[in-house]
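Field reference: sequence -> structure
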Amino acid sequence: MKNIFYVFILFLLTACSSSPAVNSCFRNSIQPIQVDLNTPQLNGLLTPNGTAQVAGGLNGIVLFNKGTGGSFSPYIALDRQCPNKDCNTPMTISPPVLECSCDKSKYSMLNGSLISGTSNCDGGARVYNVVQNGSSLQITN
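Structure field:
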């Protein structure tokens, strides 16, 4: 009976964890970045499918307005470093797609997943957490 109880507890602990897919090629961590939506640099984020670029990450970060609302933040932050790391040029931005200019692989700006091409990494493009507090966005690991 004790064994069943321990197995049940173990099951609950593992079922409740919420670990997002981590790209196996990115091991970088960033210092939290705070940006204000009222700055002219971020005007592109005011409309759905809008983008803005900020310094940080491995090759710059692009913020994307997914157009969702309600209790969900409409913003996502993605590193512009090509996931295969076969290119020093930042990925090109064509909402809702990021494209690696060296191998032509394409990644969704909605969640970072691979759309076409090949990837040597699990998890797609590097996605950072974005938390909105009023007109402020905080970008973290």
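Note: The longest strand covers residues 127-133.
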